[in-house]
Every structure is written in structure tokens, then in C-alpha cells.
Amino acid sequence: MSDRNTTSPQTASTAASGAQKPLLEIKDLQVGFQTTGGIVPAVRGVDLTLMPGQTLAIVGESGSGKSTTAHAIINLLPGPGRITGGSIVFDGQELSSFSEKQMEEVRGSQIGFVPQDPMSNLNPVWSIGFQVEETIRANGVATGRKEVRAHAIQVLKEAGLADADKRLKQFPHQFSGGMRQRVLIGIGLSARPKLLIADEPTSALDVTVQRRILDHLDIGTAVLFITHDLGLAAERAEQLVVMYKGKIVEAGPSKEILQNPVHPYTQRLVAAAPSLASRRIQSATLASPTHHLSDLDYAPTKVTEGLDLIAAAEERIEHQPKVKRPDAIVVKDLTKVYKIRGQGKGAAGSLTAADNVNFSVEKGTTTALVGESGSGKSTVAKMILRLEDPTSGSIMIDGQDVAPLKGKPLLDLRRRMQPVFQDPYGSLDPLRNIGNTIAEPLSTHKVGDRASRKARVLELLDQVALPQALITRYPNELSGGQRQRVAIARALALKPDIVVLDEAVSALDVLVQAQILKLLADLQAELELTYLFITHDLAVVRVIADNVCVMQNGKIVEAATTDDVFDNPQEQYTKELLNAIPGAGITLGV
Amino acid sequence: MAGYIFRRILQAVPVLLGTTFLIYFMVFAMPGDPLLALFGDKTPNPALLERLRAEYHLDQPFIVQYFLYLGGILRGDFGTSFSGEPVSAILARTFPVTIRLAIMALFIEFVGGVLIGLVSGLRKGKLFDASALVVSLIFISLPIFVIAFVGQFIFGIQLGWARTTVSSGAPIQDLILPAFVLASITFAQIVRLTRSSVIETQSLDFVRTAYGKGLTRRRIIPVHILRNSLIPVVTYAATDFGVLLVGATVTEGIFNVPGVGRTLYQAIIRGEGPTVVSFVTVMVLIYLVVNLVVDLLYGLLDPRIRYVK
């Protein structure tokens, strides 16, 4: 198999599809960014071939050059970006030599484009209908008011927006993220292009929404699919290209790559993808009910060390307490009702974000609160942290009711319970260096003197595996993964017993995500921490949590141990969530 | 929408009461007897003085004078100036001139500023952008009367394109040069604001997506870049209308425009309470109306903040 590295993907696909001519053929593509210090290469010699009607996925971490490759095809590179070499042949035309005018002809009508972030890719000041209709008109698909409108409604319906005719006049801010992504897919496909470039079209969405949306992409058009999730790529694409630092490190049929990754980087990606890890654990438990994870026919190797989710899960189970321990968090009949402005009084004017929520978390264990956005999981977390007051119900931390706490006792409670939030970019103060950021809780709670605080900061940096030299650096000089480590170090500064992790790994690339999950597992074993883990991603839950509470519309619909929830889901909703984990149809080399 | 406008008008009532009271009080507290000053060096006839005092209610305590004045306004009577002319007549004569001047200036600064700012933003770092920035810096740093005198000298005397002073009745062709001078105060700000707003909008994701959809640059610039970039500029230009009304005082003085600025200045010097307060009241009223119109316009430009019924 090791010769796959050297074989170009072209050979494989030409063999598969006979004498057909390729739709897109990229040879030795080089893309660089002009900076004051010269040209910085971002894509360094990419070759790929896509046949008509086929789907090819480019997989890699952020900064691997996968999006840059996609943007280079239709020259959407940002200002200083230039194609510095190679050729892009699309349907017999050499695109890299096209003028801006010629490129305008190709975009939209021949090559459609679906961007990454649904929140920022629609113009907020124009209605949805306007933005779809202008695309249809620009590409000459239909003329005349009525025809254009009818066509717009049709493409939106095809993209899964059932009530498109009623919603044309609405504006982007009146649409949810999933709805907006459907609009963008509708726009991308509106001129029936031969090729669709989909740049991480669902990374910002919940898994169940992701699944429904990606099903609408499956329409016979050739798709170039950019993603960081190997499981998702393998499920959606026949061909896979793995990129690392601007180069292709491995290419070939998806299943082959997944079952037998050759390049160390691909092996790391396979080991770190939560969707694949959870599938693998799943198949093993189904095969033998008295399973042990180490029975898996899967050997952790040197290259996957520190990233291996299965190893992390195994470790977690080993450290699981054998005897029942006291509950760290007990939540009873917790309810939160928000009043909606301008909607009058009573039921119509209020929103029940949390509805009679009951659960408890044993000391030293991890409970995951799972649900889609809007299910109320973050509201529950905020109430436990006392950032919101419950409408009714009680929260006990270590047997103590937290509702009446004020002043000093509340401060003491906060000291024992620390949060880590989703966005590692937004949760650190850009004007404070890392040392001060981590030391802030210590000075707020007046712990120790200057010297002892500094010593504690250095100790914490070691604990989260960051170099001590970072102490004087600023957040903008750090990567997303490093920032999240800083946020975790800050949460641990006061030696808390409980850490509330609100989507703490959702914004990270798979490799970084795996490292952070491993770190969290290690810290739990070392410091006896109790985790409340809020997430929309069940795959991650399989790896990290002991118990799961599934939330829907403010209610807990299912609560059980992780194994029970995965092996024997009771509720339809839980089954849907499980099915939405990508990679369901893939037989892995277990 | 109607409810929103009604609420805004209600909000204007305390603002108007507050401003008129403050201005009336300040004029009242000014040192010196306004009537004595009117007679200059002559010694006035005590009986005549007494009669005038009663006529202008100057013998009443301050608070009574204020309410008498307010009551008059409600009946449409703005009082009488010391020259015997009704204040409402002076208002009717001067405000149209100044408003015409301010609107012309606003039009010049907005159209010119947005156009130059747009081209600068689209050609960031090129020659046009660099020269526009230098020129706007010159306009920002020069006081308005310098610009006015230079304009009078070049266009009025050397080239003979415009009259150096405005003839009575203030016809539009006479107001063009003063309007350009008045516009120059904030013109540079509009250029810079538009430029930075265009540069920011240009790099937003939806603009890249618009290219990806197959739209041409000619369509993307007005539809997706300019409209979004105008939101902060419109807000600025609107608050600026008030600045133009005030700034008109200096410009009107230099070009001898028979507008609000000159008349108000003279009334302040003479301590004519009703005249000063009436002028300020109308100015505040115009300011409030302009602000309301802009807030409504803002909703048109940006649907995210359209007002709930």
C-alpha cells in the first residue's frame, strides 16, 4: 500500500471511470501570499483530478491549504494571494490564465461555490429573495420577474427550504444558521453548475442539521468538498485527498484511506476523529458484549501518541471510580422561563429554556449535556455557574443549596467551580498577556503573593502542556488550541473541584480537539475533577463522558450511562442524534 | 411604525421645554438692561421706558416672563423684537435662507465625500487614495474663515466666477460658493469615513461570496459594497446637519448672507430674549426632526434594526 503516496490520484480515478474526460484537473498548483517579506507559499504543488458527477474531499487542519486550493480554482483568493505556478484545467479550459472578466463567466454558472460560515456569507441588508434572484439573473438562468422568482423558489426548495415562497422577503437575520446554509447551497446550485465547491459547508452547524443539509448536496453534480472531519469526508466522498502544510500527503479512494492510512499525518487524523473513534468503540461493543477496549484490533503507534481518542477513552474507563461517590452537583426541577419582549404576557410571551431539569453528577466523573442549539443545555450550565438565576428549582453543589448565596460565600462557590467556554478567541482578553490572564483568578480571590502566583502560573502552564515561555505572550500570538489550553489553565488556577466545559472543544480542529480531550482526561485522573461537559457532538461524548443527558426543547429526554445511551438508545431523538454522527456507513478495519 | 414616530415626538417635548428654559434663563441673566442699551447714549424718557418695560413684560419676574412667552408660542405668537417687527416674521425671512444653504452644503459634502471616499477605498494605497488623504487633511486643519477668504479671493476676485457677497433674497447661484465653503468643514470627515468603511466591507465574507455567485464587479460595488458602507456615513452626515446650521454663522458673516447666523448674533448682542429663544427653539426643532428622519432612514438602509410595531 505504501506506493499510494507516489501514485497520483488521477490513475485511480481514470481507471474507475473508463475513458471519460476529467472535469477538473489540477497539476502542480502553487499559491503564495505576497507579504512585505516576500511571497509566502500556502499551496505547494497540488495535483488532483475530479471526474464528472464525482465527489472529492480535501481533508486537512486549518492552515493546511485546503481552502486556499479551492479558492484558487475560481480565483477568490484574498488580496495578496496569487497563483504562482501549475495549471487548473476545468472542462477543457485553462482557468489559471483567465482574466477577471472570463472568470466572472465561469463563476456561478459553471462552478458553484458554497462558503463556510452561514452567518457572515449573506449580505445582512438585502432580503434572501433578492440575493438568490440576483444570482439567477447574473448567470442568465432565467429572465423576467416571474420566471426568476419561480426559479428562486424552486432552488431554495431543492436545498431544503420548504416554505421558500413565504420567506423570500425575509432578511438573513430572521433565518437560523442551518436555514442560511440552505440558502447558500441553493445559491451555489441555482445555475446548475457542473462543479460545486463546498468549503466546510457545515462545520458551523449541529450534527443533525449537518446531515440533513449535506443530503441536499447529493444531486449528481461533481462536488469538491473541503472539510477537516475525516469521518464526514469519507461518508460523503468517493475520493479523498489529505493535505498537510500545502502539500498532498495522501490521496485515493476514501474507504481505502480510512481503513489503511499510510502517511503518519493521515494516521493521526484517523486516530483523532471523534466520529471514527466513537464508531470504532461502537462496533467493538456490538461484537462482544463483554468487551474491553484494548481488545480492539487497533494498535496505538508512535505517530498517534497523545492524539488517540480510543486510548484516551480507555484511560478514562480505567480511572473510573469503582465505588459510588457523593454527588458533586444535584439539579432538581430546574426551570428557566425567559420573557420575550413585545409579545404580551402569559405563555405566548415567554420561552421556557429549561423545563424541570433533573440530574446529578458524581464526584470525579464526567456528565455530558447533549443537544442541538436552542435545546437549553447552555442555559442549564449558566444557572449552575450562577450566571443566571433559575425561575424555579434548586441546584446543590456538594450538598449546599446555591440559590441563597451572596457576597463572600458566593465568591467561595465560584472558586470551587470554574467555566471554560467555546470560543478560544473571544474568551481571552487581547490586551492581557498569558501570565496575567492565568493569574487573574488568583489575584481576584487574593490567593498568595506575587511570587507564589507566578510559581502557580508556571505550574499550570506545565499541567496544560504549554511552554513556560508563553507567560509574556499575548493571545493573538497563540493558535486556537493553545488559547483553549490557556483558558483551561485559567479555570484550574484556583484548584476547583468542578469544571463546566461549555462546548469547550467544538471550535477546534480535530487534531487539536483530540489533544485537548486527552488533556482533560489526564487532568481529571490527576486532580479528581468533576466535569459538566456541554456539547452538541455525541461523538465526542462517547470518548469523554461517563454519563449522558440528552436535552431537547429544554427537557432532558434521556439520561443514562454513556454505554447505555449508545448501545441501547430509548428515545427517537437520541437515535437521530446517533445516526447523524458521520461515518455510519463505513466499515472500518476494526 | 406610527407608534414609534409618536413616541419619538413625545420624547421631543421635554427636550424642547428644557432647551427653551435654559436659553431664556441665560439671556435673562445677561448683565445690563437691554432697554437702556437700546437708547445708546441718550437719556430715555422714564414714562416711555416704563411703557416699553410693560409691553415686553420686562417688569415681571423671570418665571412669569418665561411662561408668558411659552403661552405665546402655543398661540403661534413668538413675540416682538425690539425693532417692533414680529419675531415670526424674522424667522420666516431668515430660516429659509440658512436651510437652503445648509442643504446645499450637505448635498455637496455627501455626494462629493462619498464618491471620493468610495474610489479611495477601492483603490487603497494607490495615487488617487494618497492624494485624497492629503487634500482632506488640508481641509481638516484649516479654519473655515481661511477657506472662505481664499475661496472669495480665487473664485470671486481672480476668476470672477462667483459674487463675493450674496445679494438680497439669496438666490441659489449666489449661495454656491458659500455652500462649498460650508461643506468643506465636514467634507474631509465624510471622505475618510466612507473610505475606511468601504475598505472594511470589501473584505467581508459576503462580498467574496457575491463574486463566487458569478456577479460582476460593476454590480458588486454599488449593491454589496457601497450600500453596506453607507450606514455609518449616513449617521454621521445627519448629526452633521446641526453642525452646518451653526457653522453657517461664520460663513454667513463673511459672505453677507441674510440668514439665521447674522440675525441671531445681533439679537444676542442686544439681549432680545424672545428673538434668541425663538431662533434656538426652531433650531432644536429642526435638529430633532432631522434626527428622527435619519433614524427612520437607518432602518431603510439596515433591515436588522427595523422598528417593531
TrEMBL record, chain A:
Coiled coil: none annotated. CDD domains: ABC_NikE_OppD_transporters. InterPro entries: AAA+_ATPase, ABC_transp_ATP-bind, ABC_transporter-like_ATP-bd, ABC_transporter-like_CS, Oligopep_ABC_C, P-loop_NTPase. Keywords: ATP-binding, Nucleotide-binding, Transport. Residues 24-270, 329-578 form the ABC transporter domain. The keyword S-adenosyl-L-methionine does not apply. Transmembrane segments: none annotated. It comes from the Bacteria. The keyword Transport applies. GO terms for molecular function: ATP binding. Belongs to the ABC transporter superfamily. This is ABC transporter ATP-binding protein. It comes from Herbiconiux daphne. The lineage of its organism: Bacteria, Bacillati, Actinomycetota, Actinomycetes, Micrococcales.
UniProtKB/TrEMBL annotation, chain B:
InterPro entries: BPD_transp_1_N, MetI-like, MetI-like_sf. Belongs to the binding-protein-dependent transport system permease family. It comes from Herbiconiux daphne. This is ABC transporter permease. Residues 95-298 form the ABC transmembrane type-1 domain. It is a multi-pass membrane protein. It is found in: Cell membrane. Keywords: Cell membrane, Membrane, Transmembrane, Transmembrane helix, Transport. It holds the Pfam family BPD_transp_1. Its main location: membrane.
